[in-house]
């Protein structure tokens, strides 16, 4: 069985997604400006407001994902004029002295635990992927609650994938656009099927 330190993890990058520089040292502002130009393309490339807004959003997305230290992070931008539709992150979860063996049941408890900001109870179901056994969890949270008691609903679709008895992978897609829920859950399902681990 492969250990995490000796493994290479692969995930297909979907069309209309840009890889965020979460594990390399780059000038985020310069990187974001170039990434925005690539996403917008030549047809709308002469619109400075669009390029500026998208570059700022990509810079913030990269900085935000860097804080969590994922293996890889993607910003999904199918319509550049609307900005980032979803964030996709693939992270490693290692065992420790408290939980010395990785199991799907442990992943389910970790991913499907209700929180004080849960919008509705999480929905979990067991799956089998090419890379190994997994649990799929849909969850929704309320963020940035104001004085009026209203907040923003953040939805997630996550896969906890048992790669080895000592570590797991967590594929997490998150978004705020409620209209995109079905499409983004389907995208997450498709991406989960592409996860591979090689030594």
Describe the structure in your own words.
It is a single chain. A hairpin with an 8-residue loop joins β6 and β7 (152-162). The protein starts with 7 loop residues before the first strand and ends with a strand. It has a seven-stranded antiparallel sheet, sandwiched between helices. The chain has a two-stranded antiparallel ribbon with strand order 1-9. It has 199 residues and is of the alpha+beta class. 31% of the residues are buried. The chain is globular, with a radius of gyration of 18 Å. It is 28% helix and 34% strand. The model has no long low-confidence stretch (mean pLDDT 91).
Coarse shape: globular
Low-confidence stretches: none
**Order of H and E elements:** EEHHEEHEEEEHE
**C-alpha Rg (nearest Å):** 18 Å
| Beta content | 25-35%
Terminal CA distance reads: 9 Å
The residue-averaged pLDDT reads 91
Beta strand count: 9
Structural class: alpha+beta
**Main beta-sheet strand count, sense and barrel state:** 7 strands, antiparallel
Sequence of strands across the biggest β-sheet: 2-3-4-8-7-6-5
Features:
199 residues; two-stranded antiparallel sheet; single chain; alpha+beta; 34% strand; seven-stranded antiparallel beta sheet; 4 helices; 28% helix
